[in-house]
Protein 1
Amino acid sequence: MKRLLITSILMAAAAGVSAQKTTAEGIAEYRRMIADGNPAELFEAKGEELWKQKRGPKNASLEQCDLGQGPGKVKGAFVQLPRFFADTGKVQDLESRLLTCMQTLQGFDAAAIAKTPFGRDEQKNIESLVAYISGESRGMRFSLPQGHSEEKTMYEVGKRAFFYRGGPYDFSCASCHGEDGKRIRLQDLPNLTGNPGDGVGFAAWPAYRVGNGQLWGMQRRLNDCFRQQRFPYPGYASEVTIALGVYMGVNAKGAESIAPGLKR
Amino acid sequence: MADPMRIRAQAAGDKTTVRVLMGHEMETGQRKDSSGKLIPAWYIQQVTAQLNGKTVMTAQWGPAVSKNPFLQFVVKGGKAGDKVTVMWEDNKGDKRSDDATVS
């Protein structure tokens, strides 16, 4: 009888431990469950179509767009962005590079697209394009080039922006993403001052958000981070967002990209 | 025309597992837009699945199903090379039908 009691106490204790599943484990389990059905795939399929489709005032496709690996090379391009592009003389991330291609190849007005609210018109198409392009580098590891002086400058600018405190709450990116083991409510926050690991932080975006059914690229992610800090929007494809992309991307060197990811 | 579905079907033993991802807004009719007007309901009502042309599952859906729904079901029988067809019809009468081959 006594032994039975001890066994049942032990069992109850074990059940108590397993019930205290961390949110991270909960999310990981949820991801496994839905791994075969990430709706980002729908965006990927649409993006591939858009990439090959003749559109815009010049009625051209994006197939000659140079994402850093040469014209039309999509595979592996995402894990080396943002990088310096000689033709524009700027460091560009995926989305600002797409704007350049849409303007030069297809004849769209890049400035007008950058001003379009997220999720509308051409911005909606960019969502699908980033899903497709990032998906072509799924499973590859981040390795941003840092050979050009502009790329090094952008890294330093990004680092400053990351630690820059301001706004009504005196927030910086580093307030939430500067240490290990922090969280907002039950959401674990990656430490972006280093490599947070495979498929975490920079390596998990673009991502499909189940809660609102939207696919967010890095630009939307960053602009929303600024909103949460109560900063004004830095703007789509603005230099500070690209600099932050360089900072996070270089820090994430060697991390495996799972993009397009899945978020709650 | 609605966006294509993504269908995967895999046979294991005497069962075939079918996974379907559908692209649909699934608007409930309860939400309001930025100007305060109700967004009209728009959702999938009828789902039909066929294995080699024979109906193996029908489902009636409502506005509670999420946007871009994911559907998984298991069919008895089915082997590699069989054809799986999934069809849906929404409350506006829009239809979509896609095929996949069992692997």
Note: The CA atoms of residues 207 and 261 of chain A lie 4 Å apart.
Protein 2
Amino acid sequence: MPELRFRNLTLGYERHPAVHHLDGTVATGALVAVVGPNGAGKSTLFKGIVGTLTPLAGSIERDGLDPRDIAYLPQVAEIDRSFPINVYDMVAMGLWRSRGLFGGIGRNDDRRIETAIAAVGLTGFEKRAIGTLSGGQMQRMLFARLLLQDARVIVLDEPFTAIDAKTSADLLDLVRRWHSEQRTVLAALHDVDLVKANFPQTLLLAREPVAWGATREVLTAENLLKARRMCEAFDDTAPACAVAELA
Amino acid sequence: MLSQWLIEPFGQASVRHAMAAIMALAFSGGPIGVFLMLRRMSLVGDAMAHSILPGVAIGYLAAGPNVFAMTLGGLVAGLIIALSAGAVSRATKLQEDASLAVLLLVALALGVVIVTVNGIDIERLMTFLFGETAAKMDPDKLFVIAGNATISLVALALIYRPLVLGCVDPGFLGSVSRSDGVAHLTFLALLVLNLINSFHALGTLLGVGIMIIPAGIARFWTRDISVMIVLAIAGGLVSGWAGLLFAYHEGIPSGPAVTLAAGLLYIGSVLFGRIGGLVWRAFPGRHLEA
């Protein structure tokens, strides 16, 4: 049963496509790596899946999925680390979907938050301001928030970028756990060896989809070279895309 | 002698009203200032303050020195500017501060034209800009200020979560809730409400001081937002109290007096603040073991 279906999906900014004519499905419980150079449209695709970006053309079908069932890990670069908030409060935001704008945090929630913080190995850091965390601790904290969200679909934007081996291994364990629980996981990644070792399926993206399927067949030298050759720059004088009209 | 300096002014009802009003302003303005700072909008607050002038002037011309008319006029003018700037920047790619800069320049120019064409006297204009002289206030104004401060505090509590999350992690907020836009526009409206409120006591030009400066002070003492809000309120209370006494004894307008008092606290915090204060930087002590 497909969890997500992309139909001739084009996402982008100010009419310029960043993801161009993507077709395909993500099955329930799939573990999919999204690989591609910088500017390939990985983050854009995730913003489309999460629903913060409206498609320029085509559609994303979320079969029976409430947007609330999708948990999202933004790139660390998008977080204001100078903001005066502590680890506990940041993790507690993972309860947003059940507690909403005004709901209080009871003793039961308190236990869940502590459990999530312990699961990523940050016990003792609850009162620390997020600005004092290292890059690895920061990512651990965001994974604790994901744990609390308890979502059917989990979308991870570059979860292991600039993270040391120990932290990557710990967090990867959590990803495997989610996979074994039949949750659907999509992750944007740059480390090809890590993908080959852990992710059964891969979407190779370079604005256009280059290949999508079993990781061994997708991540060939030929495909990777093809992805690297796609240009990154927008063309301000580009004509309107004709393919959209055919679909 | 000193105790007389501190206590004697409160024998007058108008001074007591002024003090009560400044306390209300500290409570509602402090948290607004903290969020202005954390959203990197400190100067936006400053700029917005100018935009209420035409509304206040129109209210004054329509109904004389009536606090309700001037409040209404200022609110309408401020909301038009704030919400159109917010809407323009959300609908287009123009940064919010840029669209605000354009709109408030137009508003300030309009305000000066209205004031000049209608021959509002210079003394009244000075009161508009810098607040009442010598810490005086009538009960009507106090009533309006206290009411607005209450509305502001309650509304801020309602949008607190999306406001915080919208600052620290907007991508995540967008993925769990559609409340970001509403929260931001509500915040702008509350900013306007507080500016009008401060205007009644401190004038349009310096009213924003009791919001922005306490937030700047609090930043030097804590890394936690809830503590920061409490400290900002405390900073506003202390500078309001000291500033009003200063204004009373020297017979100067409240706006500059309160702002200067807050400025002194700020300088103290820059020097001695536990988080990044200059003295602690100069003499950090020996490094720790871990």
Note: The domain at 1-65+155-164+185-247 of chain A is CATH 3.40.50.300 (Rossmann fold).
